[in-house]
Design a protein that fits this description.
It is a single chain. By secondary structure, the protein is α/β, with parallel strands linked by helices. It folds into three domains: about 40 residues; about 260 residues, no CATH class; about 35 residues, no CATH class. Helices cover about 45% and strands about 10% of the residues. The protein has a five-stranded parallel sheet with strand order 5-2-1-10-6, sandwiched between helices. Bound molecules: 2-acetamido-2-deoxy-beta-D-glucopyranose. The site of 2-acetamido-2-deoxy-beta-D-glucopyranose (NAG) has 2 residues, from loops. The site of 2-acetamido-2-deoxy-beta-D-glucopyranose has 2 residues, from loops.
């Protein structure tokens, strides 16, 4: 029998070499390799699962595998670097002021700013802080993610840094990363965001992008040491920084009794030092990604709606960041195009003013040429059309 088997093998060289291989180098067979790999993967998943469980029980985090594995994969890629995301919204000037606040927060918290795209005009709306009627941080982060994916799909993605020149700040004052680069790493997808035709075809890719967007938005809760989704917004918090005030004192602007009764709201606005709340040593401070909601602020009734950091005399690094980011220029391409237009097309000294119907309510002085123009706009009824 033995001989017969041997002879048979000899006739078919393929099977004989296979048997030989199997006998001498059992570890190199694809099946054993697969087994060993799955064992490692199993142990890895097992460890990750139990590492995350205590926190998830506490913060009601769901413990599905994509959440955990995606976050830990990203942490491995991040090599200790920490990131800051926020949700831009409303019109361009709003987005620009939020961008500047993002730069400020990235400086204070020493995190790499994730530079967002320019969103379509009012594609995402916040609501009204004075009326305490705003989209919550989670909801607005989801809306922004959805809109950004839409910009990618339709090939209309333009980064904020394609418009506003931040080269004087990056990387000397803050670190920054393009959202598309971040999202590729965060979602663990190898994709070319500039190639929209490819993306349209891959609906499964967008399914996974939707999932990782919902994770980044914090709708599944925080992920221990990986993601901290800020829950504070203008209804509860005015961020301060080293201003010498006591931390967590009441802000001067609070919802009035009528509003509290009518809307059944119980918001209390406190002034909180952002570094103490979200900086090193805090739970948020240890997270690889920190996601804010809206970073919109505006003066209101003697206070600020959400961020009251206009100077940082106790921190020279942040003070110079505030000074240097007050007026950020357009990128050279835009400035040069403007200069060319002025020189070759207008060919005369001129004053440029942008007037929009939304601004009409805020312009009070009459008699200037701008006010006259506004009056003209009113009379010619340009605003009722939109
Ligand atoms: C900022 O973080 C980096 C590590 O990411 C660290 O090396 C650096 O000292 C930090 N800078 C400040 C001012 O905290």
């Amino acid at each position: 029998m033995k001989n017969a088997a041997f002879n048979l093998d000899k006739n078919t060289t393929k099977s004989s070499s296979w048997i030989k291989k199997k006998q001498t180098q059992p570890l190199k067979s694809p099946l054993s390799l697969l087994l060993i790999l799955s064992l490692f993967l199993f142990i890895f998943l097992f460890i990750s699962f139990f590492k995350i469980t205590p926190n998830s029980l506490f913060s009601k985090t769901i413990t599905n595998n994509p959440l955990i594995s995606q976050c830990s994969k990203f942490q491995t890629l991040a090599l200790g670097e920490k990131f800051l995301w926020y949700a831009p919204h409303s019109g361009f000037s709003n987005q620009l002021s939020e961008f500047k606040n993002g730069i400020l927060m990235a400086g204070i918290l020493n995190r790499t700013l994730i530079v967002p795209p320019v969103l379509d005009h009012h594609a995402v709306a916040l609501g009204s802080c004075p009326k305490f009627r705003v989209l919550g941080p989670k909801e607005i982060r989801v809306s922004v993610w959805d809109h950004v994916l839409d910009l990618v799909k339709t090939g209309r993605y333009i980064s904020m840094a394609d418009i506003i020149d931040i080269s004087s700040l990056v990387p000397s004052s803050i670190k920054a990363i393009d959202f598309r680069v971040f999202a590729s790493l965060w979602c663990n997808v190898n994709m070319d965001f500039t190639c929209s035709n490819d993306l349209n075809a891959q609906s499964s890719l967008f399914d996974s992008l939707n999932l990782c967007g919902s994770i980044l938005s914090g709708i599944h809760g925080n992920v221990d040491k990986c993601l901290y989704a800020v829950d504070e917004d203008c209804r509860t918090t005015v961020w301060t920084y080293k201003n010498g005030d006591e931390d967590r004192v009441l802000d001067s602007f609070q919802p009035d009794e009528q509003l509290k009764k009518k809307k059944k709201i119980s918001y209390v606005r406190r002034r909180q030092d952002v570094y103490k709340s979200l900086g090193p040593g805090s739970e948020a401070g240890s997270a690889t990604v920190l996601a804010f909601g809206s970073l919109f602020t505006a003066p209101y009734k003697g206070s600020e709606l959400h961020i009251d950091i206009h100077e940082a005399r106790r921190d020279q690094r942040i003070q110079s960041l505030i000074d240097n980011s007050e007026f950020l220029p357009f990128v050279p391409e835009i400035l040069n195009a403007g200069k060319k237009f002025a020189l070759e097309t207008i060919k005369a000294p001129f004053l440029c003013a942008q007037l929009s119907c939304a601004s009409l309510g805020f312009v009070g002085t009459a008699g200037s040429t701008i006010a006259d123009s506004i009056e003209l706009m009113r009379k010619s009824d340009v605003c009722s059309k939109s």
